[in-house]
Amino acid sequence: MRKTLDIDLYKNGFGYQQVDCIRGPIAAAAGYFSYNNYFYFCYLHAILSNTKNYFESDFVGTANRILSCMGLELQKIDCSGDSPEETVNRIAQEILEGRPVILIVKYNSLFYNKYYKDSTFTLDHAIIVNEYGENNNTFSIKEGSLLRDIVDAYENSDIFFSLQLTFDMLKDIYDESNKQYIKETPVFANSIYSMHKTEENNIDTNDVINVSLMLFRDYKNDLINVINSYNEQIEKFNYYIEFTRRRFYGSIKPIFYLLYDHCKQRNLDMALTENTEKNIEKIRGYILDFLYTASITGAKITREKQEILCNMVLDGDERLTNLIQSLFVNERKKKEINYYVDLTRYYNNQAFEATLNDNSTADITGQGTHYIMQDVVINEEWKKGGYSFIYRYYTGQVDNISCEGQTVWIPGIDARYISILGCAEFGNYREDIEIELSDGTKQRITTDFSDFYQSAILKKQYIGLEQLPKEKTARQIITTLMQGFLQKDIPLNPVVLFC
Predict the structure, then answer these.
(1) Complete DSSP assignment for 302-343
(2) More confident residue, 150 or 148
(3) How many CA atoms does the CB half-sphere of 242 hold within 13 Å?
(4) 3-state SS, residue 86
(5) Cys bridge to 377: 70, 86, 333, 382, which one at CB 3.0-4.6 A?
(6) Beta strands in 83-236 (DSSP E)
(7) In Å, how far from its chain's centre is CA 193?
(8) Under a CB-based contact definition with an 8 Å cutoff, are residues 25 and 128 in contact?
(9) Angstrom distance (rounded) from CA 77 to CA 194
């Protein structure tokens, strides 16, 4: 009997420059249970790898923080007191029970590696043991470094190639590595790791993006700490520049691989994703090149320059989080039925004109400034991000409400939230809107409107703002969408709005 746990080559995956040679095999082992788990793990790992103490933390705990959303768990098996033969037998048993084994080893213990028996090269590595044959007592491993720097057919050099090993071959790899770990560190000593399925959890890119949004709630990019501590550890920075570059620049690829895949699956526009990727590559590339160039000569950098670099990091992170938020599709909200309130009977002002016309009656500010009616979706459902509206417009007539404390009646409906399309004049504006429910109770919600002249800048957890298409006027007037979330399932039968 031969038990094989099929794991893909992942030719279109990532090299050690993007995902290190321990987390990469963990991702591939997760891929045994579902092909895309590899990419999901790499995406979330790439985000977390930029945070403080990620690589100093318990790697099993950090791995399981990611794997849990896939219904998987990496378990450490303590082999203290077991002989190398007994440990290899334990590996065979794990495979027979359907669990891939991750073996943390030293490069210099791998007989097929160029650093074999090189006592000066003591870096850690991981291999996957995914096949065992009882009839001839042999194993098969998945090895990401085997074809590294040899095969250039794929952009990724860490192809998980299969290699057949005898029982003694695998035993010697474990034994040679374990002897070094016992002397160096107890973390990997006397240990093997197996991937367990804990629950059935079918997820997609949208689910993984949602998980990443939760990670960003307390996200702090450690590149800022690297910048601020640079002057105190110039020599150390120079020594670890390759690792630092992989960590903060190499991680960009796994993140955007998943985001592009998500856009393809959901038929989403990729322009913003492409621009964001280029901006982050430019920001991080510049920062790392600047620090490395300075470190070569031992030059310190001023506090002012550190602040500039840190602000660049924060700007890139904000661009990334905003992009991810915009790509996430709220499936529950998609199932909701939108009810559109016809406000035309409340219109008391004209804001749009066919052209920029100084003699027009269209006026937003009282000084003749107005919108240009160009590429505006009217009299049909219009969607932007997670919001949707129907803007009623009739040429030559009043087309909006200038708020003066009017009461707007809404027919009897059951609703969970209310969305308002509007803008402010003479600066950003905050206003309370009072909602009166059918049972006579009242609730006030605070709304923020961005000035018509600039893009939406007012953002809160309970109020989301989206920028509408820019109207091509002399002043590039911009309107905004705003959504104020009420309590869940509030019956609006009817609702009174005091604008």
Answers:
(1) -HHHHHHHHHHHHHHHHHHHHHHHHH---HHHHTSPP-----
(2) 148
(3) 4
(4) helix
(5) 382
(6) 101-106, 124-133, 138-143, 161-166, 191-197
(7) 27
(8) yes
(9) 8
DSSP states of 349-412: B--EESS--TT-S--SSSSS--EE-SS---SSEEEETTEEEE----TTS--B---SS-EEEE-S
- What would the DSSP string read from start to end of 36-51? THHHHHHHHHHHHTTB
**What is d(CA 110, CA 91) in angstroms, rounded to the nearest whole number?**
18
Q: How many CB atoms lie within 10 A of CB 326?
A: 14
CA distance 447 to 56: 44
pLDDT confidence band for 242 (50 / 70 / 90): very high
Parallel, antiparallel or unpaired: strands 138-143 and 191-197: unpaired
Q: Which amino acid is at 172?
A: D
**What's the pTM?**
0.70
Which residue from 267, 394, 409, 286 is spatially nearest to 327, judged by alpha carbons? 267
* The total number of residues written for the chain in this structure: 499
CB atoms within 10 A of CB 171: 20
Q: How many CA atoms lie within 13 A of 343 on its CB side?
A: 24
Q: What is the distance of C-alpha 99 from the center of its chain? A: 28
Task: Identify which of 106, 29, 94, 93 has the alpha carbon closest to the alpha carbon of residue 60.
Answer: 29
* Contact partners, residue 336, CB within 8 Å, separation at least 6: 416
Percent of the chain with pLDDT over 90: 56
- Tell me the angle at which helices 23-30 and 37-48 cross, rounded to the nearest 10 degrees: 150
Residue written as token pair 């959504």: 483
Give me the helix-helix angle, 271-297 and 303-327, nearest 10°: 160
CA distances from 496 to 343, 411, 442 (A): 13, 10, 9
Q: What angle do CA 389, 392, 394 make, to 5 degrees?
A: 155
